[in-house]
Write a structure and sequence with these properties.
276 residues; Rossmann fold; 2 domains; 4-stranded parallel beta sheet; 12 helices; 11 strands; 44% helix
């Protein structure tokens, strides 16, 4: 149960307090990205999972899945209003499907009186909310078993994934190890190019989904995720860009009853149209 003191607004540092957790061994941009587009009444705190020897294998996610509940417990004790879990693969690791994850999220959220949003599930929730039934999956840097797991998870929710492919499938790289060595940071033009390629392969889809949390260097060398790029890409490819970072922030903002600031892509901009 969440400590009673957090029900008193005078005891909180921020009107809305958001906790994030990201994969072990990665300095995650989610808290910084989220704050950049948030009003000043929102604060964010990050907590990495501690998993020595972690090397991003799916079975390691299974072995450390219990740590997600520990994060929610800690964030609840600290007064977080909502917790966002970064990393699409956690929802399908170990063969879990959308029904398993919906049940898990509901149980943990209720136990600690703090909503938990998992990035992989928010991809599904955004499609459901927006009515997107047929999608292409730009699987960006994902290893083949990660890519296939995301496709299976989406299909378990009744989403028609008509085309999917990672950077190697799309022909941008010849070898998955080269992609892995990039540490999730890629040339700036690849964000647009890969989305354009996905639309060319599946022109009749409702939206382009993007798993993971890939980064693309801008002209100043700063890595940016799709939350910073979606509006421009959508204008070019004429399809909604539904990336996991965007859907996670969208679901968090909805929980808080808040809206992002600045120019946003189609999904986040719906909150700007409806939030007082």
């Amino acid at each position: 149960m969440k400590p009673k003191r957090w029900s008193d607004p005078e005891k909180k540092l921020f009107s809305h307090q958001v906790g994030f957790t990201g994969p072990p061994m990665d300095f995650d941009a989610a808290p910084s990205d989220f704050l950049r587009i948030s009003p000043p009444t929102i604060g964010a705190h990050g907590r990495l999972l501690h998993a020595p020897g972690y090397s991003h294998e799916l079975d390691q996610r299974v072995d450390n899945f219990h740590q997600l509940e520990e994060v929610v417990h800690c964030m609840s004790n600290a007064g977080a209003d909502v917790v966002g879990q970064v990393g699409t693969n956690w929802v399908h690791a170990g063969g879990r499907d959308v029904h398993d994850i919906r049940a898990y999220v509901a149980e943990v959220s209720e136990r600690y009186e703090t909503p938990l949003h998992m990035a992989g599930l928010t991809l599904v929730q955004a499609c459901e909310e927006m009515g997107y039934e047929r999608v292409a999956l730009n699987s960006v840097y994902f290893w083949p078993d990660w890519r296939d797991g995301v496709v299976r998870f989406l299909r378990s929710a009744g989403i028609d994934v008509t085309w999917y492919g990672n950077f190697v499938d799309q022909g941008w790289y010849d070898d998955q190890q080269v992609v892995n060595d990039a540490t999730w940071i890629f040339p700036g033009e690849l964000a647009m190019d890969s989305c354009r390629y996905a639309v060319e392969q599946a022109p009749d889809v409702d939206a382009v989904l993007i798993n993971g949390m890939s980064n693309y260097r801008n002209e100043d060398g700063l890595p940016q995720r799709f939350v910073s790029l979606a509006a421009d890409i959508e204008a070019e490819v004429e399809k909604p860009i539904i990336a996991a970072d965007i859907t996670l922030y969208w679901q968090i903002f909805r929980t808080l009853g808040a809206a992002p600031l600045g120019r946003q892509g189609s999904l986040l901009s719906t909150l700007q149209d409806t939030t007082p």
